[in-house]
Here is the input.
Amino acid sequence: MGFHHALSGLNAASKNLDVIGHNIANSGTTAFKSSRAEFSEAVASALGSSSGQSYGIGVTTAAITQQFKQGNLKPTGNNLDVAINGNGFFVVKQLDGTDAYTRAGSFRVDQDGYLRTVHGDQIMGKTLDPETGKPLAIANQDNDLVAMQFVTGKLLPAKQTTEVDVRLNLDARAPNAAGDPTATPPIDATPRATYGTSLNVHDQQGASTPVHLYFEKGAANQWNVFGGLDDMNAKPPIINPSSGFIQMDAIGKPRGIAKATEFDATGKFPTKLTYTFNADDGSVKTADIDRTWTFTTDPADPTVMTGASYVDSFGGTPLTSANFAAFEASATASTDASIVDFKLSMKIDSSKANPNAPEPFDVAIDLNEVTQYGVSFSVSKLFQDGYQAGHLNSINISEDGSIIAQYDNGVKQAEARLMLATFRNVQGLASIGGDKWAETKESGLANKDFAKTSIFGSLHANTLEESNVDLTAELVDMMTAQRAYQASAQAIKTQDQVFSTLVNLR
Here is the structure.
């Protein structure tokens, strides 16, 4: 039996050397997971023996197991390289239509725009609604997973502007815009363009139209707002029917905005507008209320208000020229910081910029972040949510697996998201080559979800996971396996000498 023992040792050492050699050969393979040969003792059956003891008959290879420990992350600078840090596998569709799983994230885009691995497998994920960022339900798809496709040059439809976000500071030291000729020295009227800014908005077809916003100091802590499609310095200026006023509080924050609803034919200040402000005005402390105000103006000067009344869910309270100032004081006396809605509605007609312009459209001018401090007028932010049509330039992958499409009109939006898979028993996965594994009964069914969700790891863009092979350890193991092979070979040689001695007995 000595030959059998030594022969099993030779086989085991040879298998171990095969595994070690495979690991060393793949020490530079992206996301490669090293393997380990595991051995067990082979024994003869002891049933029926007088002593009941078993005896060893050599060694067997119990299993070749893969080690799924994390590999080092290596920056590459390639925007389509992505590494998994933590649990999970990328879900891919092979050329034969079957699913497989890989950790190798060196992706590329083919001529049809499909995101593929270096072996040609399609990368699977979910498409997103660009408006909400939530996955779209795709009928007749396996768990709604689809192949990721991004065609360079794809046209993104234009989007109409619906809201403009304005963040600026109005100088609290500014005199009344009308000036005061009776003051010593006289105060001249402030030109309308002094406190103004402009930006372009887009119609339904993406054509841009410049919009000008101007602010005139009126009563104390009150600024009249004018919006126009033409320069306010023009003679005469064209006032867009979105004009209103902002009522500021004592600490320089907005407390109320007048929303225009009706204007006269000359574009003068309205005789009716909706005034939205915080309901915590000293009388109602439970909710914010939109109150519809009807204002009366001086016939000689329609910009001068002489009285007002409102209607809301709590009933109406008439205002006259005698108590209008008291109304303004109550509207600014609240200490509650919550504000309902400080937006003006502007009607945009883009026919001058676009001969084929659609119907005029409404744009909400958000003035919630306008302040009134004792520093110079300054604009910190102007943002509008519309854009012209654009072509796809490139894609990038974020840490949660979102694929961000970038267009030549400056728009960046998440259009898809990679899916990851985990298994209850990763050791049960079947290695099928090409840095891929297949699901088996032993591994259990794939649990698919997004990166950074529950037990799933995060993704690192412009990065690849390196092989987890420890070359130093492998070289030491190789020397050990070599010694074991030599020792088994020596055992065979010794056994041969013993047989030769027995055969030569006389």
Remarks:
- The CA atoms of residues 33 and 64 lie 12 Å apart.
- Helices lie at 2-25, 324-332, 471-503.
- The mean pLDDT is 78.
- The first strand starts at residue 35 and ends at 43.
